[in-house]
Design goal:
Length: 50
């Protein structure tokens, strides 16, 4: 990992974490929506089979 000379290593790590956070939030939201979608599809298929 290359650290800019004018910044401490700790600050760099904090900035990287802040930069990564939104991606994690987005990934979590997508995973949640995918799970919800799969559950609703399974539920609809069960109703159709009755």
């Amino acid at each position: 990992m290359i650290t800019p000379l004018n910044r401490s290593k700790e600050e760099s790590t904090k900035l990287e974490m802040i930069a990564i956070e939104p991606d994690n939030a987005l990934a979590t939201a997508l995973a949640t929506n995918r799970t919800r979608l799969i559950k609703s599809v399974i539920f609809e298929n069960m109703i159709a089979l009755w």
